[in-house]
Amino acid sequence: METHFACMPPERAIRSTVQQGAIVVVEDPFIQRYLGNVLTRRGYQVIGTDADRATRMLRSGTEQVDLIITNSPGNFLTFADTIPLLYMAGAPDMELAARFLCCRVLKKPFHPDHLLAAIRELAVSV
Question: Mean per-residue pLDDT for 4-33?
Fold first, then answer.
């Protein structure tokens, strides 16, 4: 099951092709590599990291982050109003997801086409 929540205005949404900023993936290393391979082949800049480094990146503003992909959105509640989030989980917590201004939930397992569609949705959602 996939669920889409309301998102921020398009001027703050990510671009659907190569963007200026990065998609930050906070997942286990295997998933980071897999998503990195799928997304970089489609022209996205991907940074695989842990929640602490991703949080530092968001706080510092020194690197433009266009989207967070994670299975642990609770680590990013501080940024729930400022960054689009793709929440991937086998059993997603929909109440937690609903706390984000712009969140797309993708239930594991999923096909790469579903991942790309979710990212495109986040890019064009109003």
Answer: 67
Give strand pairing partners of 103.
85
**pTM here?**
0.84
Q: Which residue has the tokens 């930050």?
A: 24
pLDDT in tens, 74-115: 999 999 999 999 999 999 999 999 999 999 999 999 999 999
- Phi/psi at 21 (5° precision): -100, -165
Helix, coil or strand: residue 104: strand
> Taking the C-alpha atoms of 23, 31, 70 and 57 in order, what is their torsion angle to the nearest 10 degrees?
-50
CA atoms within 13 A on the CB side of 30: 0
Task: Please count the CA atoms within 13 angstroms of the CA of 121 that sit on its side-chain side.
Answer: 19
